[in-house]
Amino acid sequence: MGIFRRKATAEQLEQLQGQVADLAERLRDAHAARALLEARLAEVEARTGELGAGHDLVRARVDEVGRAVGHQLDELNGELDGLGATLHGLRVEVNGLTTRLPEGALATTALVEELRGNQAAIANELVRYEIALREEVATLAARLPTRR
């Protein structure tokens, strides 16, 4: 309040004018900074809007892919259940076949191969016996007196 009661000197006026000029410059700088910040804020809001729209697109795509994968998993689950039922049926059938085997017999690949080999040997022996029998019958037929 002392300023208004006394007369200001030229030096004080100059000092006050300098302070007012500094304040005016700082105000102009603040307005320029505010304008820059508002422009930057507008850019950020625009980019945020773009990102939000992109986010929505990505979320929709992820949901779509998730549903598709879920359906495929359901299909695979159904196929696995079907294969499991088939496998169970085959196990039951194999168990049924193995119970018909003589006690202690093992149905292994080696045993099956051995049986096949024995079957071939028996077939060859039968063919040899058949040939020998025909030859003997032919010899006996040749010895028999012919009836006229």
Low-pLDDT segments: none
Total DSSP helices: 3
Oligomer: single chain
Order of helices and strands: HHH
Mean pLDDT comes to 81
User: Alpha-carbon distance between the termini?
Assistant: 173 Å
Strand proportion, as a percent range, falls in: under 5%
Q: Number of domains in the coordinates? A: 2
Total number of strands:
0
> Biggest sheet, open or closed, and with what strands and sense?
none
Shape: rod-shaped
Q: What is the helix fraction of residues, given as a range? A: over 70%
Structural class: mainly alpha
Rounded to the nearest angstrom, the radius of gyration is 54 Å
Structural descriptors:
148 residues; mainly alpha; 2 domains; 0% strand
Could you characterize what this model shows?
The protein has 148 residues and is mainly α. The chain folds into two domains: 8-67; 105-148. It is built from three helices and no strands. It has helices at residues 2-5, 10-100, 109-143. The radius of gyration is 54 Å and the shape is rod-shaped. The relative contact order is 0.02. The model has no long low-confidence stretch (mean pLDDT 81).
Topology record:
Blueprint: H1 2-5, H2 10-100, H3 109-143
Short description:
The chain has helices at residues 2-5, 10-100, 109-143.
